[in-house]
UniProtKB/TrEMBL annotation:
<dbReference type="GO" id="GO:0005524">
    <property type="term" value="F:ATP binding"/>
</dbReference>
<feature type="domain" description="Helicase C-terminal">
    <location>
        <begin position="243"/>
        <end position="388"/>
    </location>
</feature>
<dbReference type="Pfam" id="PF04851">
    <property type="entry name" value="ResIII"/>
</dbReference>
<dbReference type="Pfam" id="PF00271">
    <property type="entry name" value="Helicase_C"/>
</dbReference>
<dbReference type="InterPro" id="IPR050742">
    <property type="entry name" value="Helicase_Restrict-Modif_Enz"/>
</dbReference>
<protein>
    <submittedName>
        <fullName>DNA repair protein RadD</fullName>
    </submittedName>
</protein>
<dbReference type="GO" id="GO:0016787">
    <property type="term" value="F:hydrolase activity"/>
</dbReference>
<dbReference type="GO" id="GO:0006412">
    <property type="term" value="P:translation"/>
</dbReference>
<feature type="domain" description="Helicase ATP-binding">
    <location>
        <begin position="20"/>
        <end position="173"/>
    </location>
</feature>
<dbReference type="InterPro" id="IPR014001">
    <property type="entry name" value="Helicase_ATP-bd"/>
</dbReference>
<dbReference type="GO" id="GO:0003677">
    <property type="term" value="F:DNA binding"/>
</dbReference>
<dbReference type="InterPro" id="IPR027417">
    <property type="entry name" value="P-loop_NTPase"/>
</dbReference>
<dbReference type="GO" id="GO:0005829">
    <property type="term" value="C:cytosol"/>
</dbReference>
<dbReference type="InterPro" id="IPR001650">
    <property type="entry name" value="Helicase_C-like"/>
</dbReference>
<dbReference type="InterPro" id="IPR006935">
    <property type="entry name" value="Helicase/UvrB_N"/>
</dbReference>
<dbReference type="InterPro" id="IPR011332">
    <property type="entry name" value="Ribosomal_zn-bd"/>
</dbReference>
Length: 589
């Protein structure tokens, strides 16, 4: 059977990458393609090439129907298993299903499947009890070589970070516990836009007014309590009216406008300011039949404005949309990209898509760095080379006026051994081996190995690592101990001796000396300070006290210093670097 579509080059590359990966491995894989890149065509082609049973899962009936339609356009028959579509057929070689319907009818999926394809796979959590994981576990009981492939435009979850562990370009995204092991193909949004496969987004700052949601508490998924949002919005009726007046003005030459509201009450208020005969409101409680009719009228351009609350971010395709107005807050880069993606599909006569964010969401559409939560508002992605393997890491950090990195928050090198030199990554127990260089670390007292700053057990000798909070708590109980929140250090040198003075935020001082003529003391200093030189970006081994003095501005200070009282002086016993815990650090509020 010949394919009715000619795949775009990148779509064929994604298919080829999948075949190549699963011929070599049974480990789960992810393909990352931007919204509008044609994931359903990639799925259809993989299903067409398959010789054994395949299950294609997604979370909304619209995507089930869309993926099934693309497959049947090849002249092939596939089954649909979705309560929302009122069809429950699992007898075909290829079944397109909603995850909810399969999870509720596991007894009908006892056959042996060779491949599970999950569309919008960023919705898969790492929890064994989730619907996706229960289905995968059942199918693995029938076939322990089951292949699992995910497709998404946004390969991350706010509470988890990246959903996969290894990237095919030679770096690692995280430790164990990710739902997927490998990203085998990725295409950036900028590629699609620059080559004319997607419409260019025209990102404009709100010129009239913005909501300020910064004071609202969010949950671990970056979402806000509806009552909190409604309470804030109720105080800003004039802001909402001014925003919608601007939207209507800017929409004069636009064909289709999608407005994303924060809550149902907010959406109703917005709708009240829009032309009634040109506007539709869709929420989670909208009757299914009415919702279908409203969306149909919008797609036929009988309606110009479509206001919605959290229901049209995936599985919705209206290519004529050329204006996206975001009036809802979110910390989820994934959701933000899905929202903007509604306006990036190509359409005849469409030059760009106007995107205005009235909610102050600070998201970089093209380069979202979401591996770790943003440490503070003025952080930005910075490139940090690994002193161990040379890999160019991307971490949150800060730069000076010349663009030089002055601080970063990376913990461990993300590179894979061998990958920096362009070779195939080295394998350890069958898995790519990650570079073990740590920019921030806790040292094991038993064997000296460097461990992650959150580790409780040494990765090398398995010995227990003392929790810094326990160290501080124990020291604070002692009458003959002093604990200072270190706000900085100053140095003095006299011959081979170097004196360090630790300054507490309240004016306290503690001091200690290192004699560089003694190898043991020189080694201790370099392990403590030389290893962390220049925020751990450029570790140095100092040979003399004068060398240290020349570069003292780049020495890292500890966060806490613990000393014990001797007869006539205080002796420094512990210096706690890279602290993350319950105690406040110097000058924190």
């Amino acid at each position: 059977m010949n394919a009715p579509f000619t795949l775009r080059p990148y779509q064929q590359e994604a298919v080829d990458a999948t075949l190549r990966h699963f011929r070599q491995s049974d480990e789960s894989a992810v393909i990352v393609l931007p919204t509008g890149a044609g994931k359903s065509l990639v799925i259809a082609e993989l299903a067409r090439l398959a010789r054994r049973r395949i299950l294609v899962l997604t979370h909304v009936k619209e995507l089930v129907e869309q993926n099934h339609a693309k497959y049947e356009s090849y002249g092939l028959a596939g089954g649909i298993f979705s309560a929302g579509l009122k069809r429950k057929d699992s007898g075909h070689q290829v079944t397109f299903a909603s995850v909810q319907s399969v999870s509720a009818n596991l007894e009908q999926f006892q056959d042996e499947y060779s491949l599970v394809i999950i569309d919008e796979c960023h919705r898969v959590s790492g929890e064994d009890t989730s619907q996706y994981q229960r289905i995968i576990e059942l199918l693995r009981q029938q076939n322990d070589s089951l292949k699992v492939l995910g497709l998404t435009a946004t390969p991350y979850r706010l509470a988890m970070g990246w959903i996969y562990r290894y990237h095919y370009r030679g770096f690692v995204r995280g430790d164990e516990g990710k739902p997927f092991q490998h990203c085998i193909y990725e295409l950036p949004l900028s590629f699609m836009i620059n080559r004319g496969y997607l419409t260019r987004p025209e990102l404009v700052n709100a010129a009239v007014a913005q909501y300020d949601f910064s004071a609202l508490p969010s949950d671990r998924f970056g979402e806000y309590a509806e009552k909190d949002v409604n309470r804030l919005l109720s105080k800003h009726k004039r802001v909402t009216r001014a925003i919608i007046e601007q939207v209507v003005e800017l929409a004069a030459e636009r064909k289709g406008v999608m407005i994303f509201a924060a809550t149902v009450d907010h959406a109703k208020e917005i709708t009240g300011y829009l032309p009634e005969h040109e506007t539709a409101l869709v929420t989670g409680s909208t009757d299914t039949k009415e919702r279908t009719q409203l969306i149909h009228r919008f797609k036929r351009r009988q309606l110009k404005y479509l206001v919605n609350v959290s229901v049209l971010t995936t599985g919705f395709d209206a290519p004529h949309v050329d204006f996206i107005a975001i009036l809802r807050p979110t910390q989820s880069v994934s959701l933000y990209q899905q929202i903007v993606g509604r306006g990036l599909r190509l359409d005849e006569g469409k030059r760009d898509c106007l995107v205005i964010d009235y909610a102050g969401n600070s998201v970089n559409l093209h380069h979202p760095e979401v591996g770790e939560p943003k440490p503070n508002p003025d952080s930005e992605p910075v490139q940090v080379f690994c002193p161990g393997c040379g890999f160019a890491n991307i971490f949150w950090g800060k730069t000076d006026s010349d663009g030089r990195v002055v601080e970063h928050y990376g913990r461990r090198c993300q590179g894979l051994i061998g990958a920096a030199e362009g070779e195939e990554p080295a394998l350890q127990n069958g898995c790519p081996e990650q570079c073990d260089y740590r920019f921030r670390f806790k040292e094991c007292r038993h064997c000296g190995a460097e461990n992650d700053i959150a580790a409780r057990k040494c990765h090398q000798c398995q010995g227990a690592i003392i929790d810094p909070d326990d160290q501080l708590k124990d020291a604070l109980k002692l009458k003959d101990a002093m604990v200072i929140r270190c706000a900085g250090i100053t140095l003095n040198a006299a011959g081979s001796k170097l004196k360090i003075i630790y300054h507490g935020e309240d004016g306290e001082e503690l001091g200690e000396s290192f004699d560089f003529s003694k190898p043991a003391q020189r080694t201790v200093f370099n392990r403590l300070f030389g290893r962390r030189f220049a925020n751990s970006q450029a570790p140095k081994t100092f040979g003399t006290a004068d060398e240290v003095l020349e570069m003292q501005a780049l020495l890292s200070a500890p966060d806490f210093v613990i000393a014990r009282k001797q007869k006539h002086y205080w002796q420094v016993q512990e210096r706690i670097f890279d602290y993350q815990g319950n105690y406040r650090k110097a000058y924190e509020t």
